[in-house]
Design goal:
2 copies of one chain form a homodimer.
Chain A (H helix, E strand, L loop, with lengths): L44 H16 L6 H8 L3 H8 L2 H8 L4 H11 L6 H13 L5 H11 L3 H19 L8 H21 L10 H16 L2
Helix pairs in contact in A: 1-2, 1-4, 1-7, 2-3, 5-6, 5-8, 6-10, 7-8, 8-9, 9-10
Chain A binds a DNA duplex (30 and 30 nucleotides) through helix 3.
GO molecular function, one term (chains A, B): DNA-binding transcription factor activity
InterPro entries (chains A, B): Homeodomain-like_sf, HTH-type_TetR-like_transc_reg, HTH_TetR, Tet_transcr_reg_TetR-rel_C_sf, TetR_C_16
Keywords (chains A, B): DNA-binding
Chain lengths: 224, 224
DNA sequence: CAGTGAGTTCATCACGTGATGAGTTTTCGG
DNA sequence: CCGAAAACTCATCACGTGATGAACTCACTG
């Protein structure tokens, strides 16, 4: 139903262990289905779990996501999640980590003439959200910020940290900090309605149109 | 910890009904603790439960709120929640119902000259959110919209319904609908950051200042 | 004053949750 | 080539959840 949910649609019904009377080792007839123990070759399970966690948390939020679901999405046993990440909370915190390129994009957009900064910021914001690799982490943050304390804290840090630094020289005059936080507010609102709540016609509007109108709104707070 | 949580801090350990040794009733020695059965006098339990539900959902969201917690907040048995409202989901839907005065406030603000409509809308929005009687319902909607489908749907309806109707004659020209949805976006963003994520200095800024700057941003989308 | 129905509590169920520990197989440093 | 550490599975636990049904008491109609 959703968009980012590809990862989970693997058939792989259930670990058909086919116990078959075994001796000590699984002398089962069929393909040697590794029962327990380490897998041969290189391992990329840790990242797989984190990726699955990002996807799941992005879709359903913290409370709505069970460790079993994450494990299933990653194709591993649930205990492995604990093995690598300890508690659900600490896994969540790591899933919340934002890719560095988001900061770069925003920072780059803030540079240059003040005149077009509103439009440039909106464009940068949309480009990051439209990128499937950075979306789950952003989605997780915004979706959970409404409920989860740590996620809200992250959102605040990102807003005041990244944005304040980027717009430091751009927004000047009275109440500069307040106006900076309002820019963050507008961007979060945009993400919330366009990507999370899926409000039409905003969700389907093409990038350029959104940039034109919403950029104007940001510019109104930046200027003075 | 939070602000709206007054309702729950009642000591009222146990419903000491003080039945005074009654005749037919359990002639137990101690204070006649109303075990089961209807309470004498008028009953306002139904509304108490709904109010408690609004407060709890507003604080913790749908998943984070248990029926037991709601029942405890309302000071009643958990089974009563089911008795009156059926499932948790249906109780949630009723808790989502917005007071009519919100629509009125927004609609009233949209009337009048186009010039100051941005500021008037922001002021109306803030006044509704700062009113403790309407806050839990709004909080519930915004907090849960990130996760819960029905809440998101409500948010969309409210945005396109109330706002589109109110701003129908005000926003004209190209992409009127899109720009209307952007006004909604800005207002939701404001609520999200000022009241939910509690971003400073936005959260502590006084109403007039917020109205001045943010009103300008709304106006930028309204005009043309 | 009988009796139906609504308000209220208690005890309980089946289930999904996060977490843990024991046991198995591989990798890898010495 | 040995042994410790890492990767991995399985079985289980204790717990909180939403939901249900039986029992009891009051209000209200006739």
């Amino acid at each position: 139903m959703e968009s980012v949910s590809d990862m989970r649609e693997r058939g792989e019904t259930g670990h058909e262990q086919a116990g078959t009377t075994a001796g000590t080792a699984p002398a089962a007839g069929a393909a040697a289905k590794h029962a327990g123990g380490r897998r041969p070759g290189e391992t990329r399970t840790r990242e797989a779990i984190l990726g699955a966690a990002r996807v799941c948390f992005a879709e359903r939020g913290f409370d709505g996501t069970s460790l079993r679901r994450i494990a299933e999405t990653a194709g591993v046993d649930q205990a492995l999640v604990h093995h690598f990440y300890g508690t659900k909370e600490s896994l969540f915190l790591q899933a919340l980590e934002l890719p560095g390129r988001i900061q770069e994009a925003i920072t780059a957009a803030a540079r240059g003439e003040r005149a077009g900064v509103g439009e440039r910021m909106v464009r940068a914001h949309l480009s990051v959200w439209d990128d499937v690799s950075s979306r789950p982490a952003l989605m997780t943050m915004v979706r959970s910020a409404a409920i989860h304390r740590a996620a809200a804290a992250r959102l605040r840090e990102t807003a005041t940290g990244v944005l304040a630094r980027a717009l430091g020289g751009v927004i000047t005059g009275e109440d500069a900090m307040l106006r900076t936080s309002m820019v963050a507010t507008q961007l979060v609102g945009l993400a919330m309605m366009r990507y999370v709540a899926v409000l039409e016609p905003l969700s389907s509007a093409d990038t350029d149109t959104v940039v034109r109108y919403y950029g104007r709104a940001l510019q109104a707070v930046v200027d003075d």
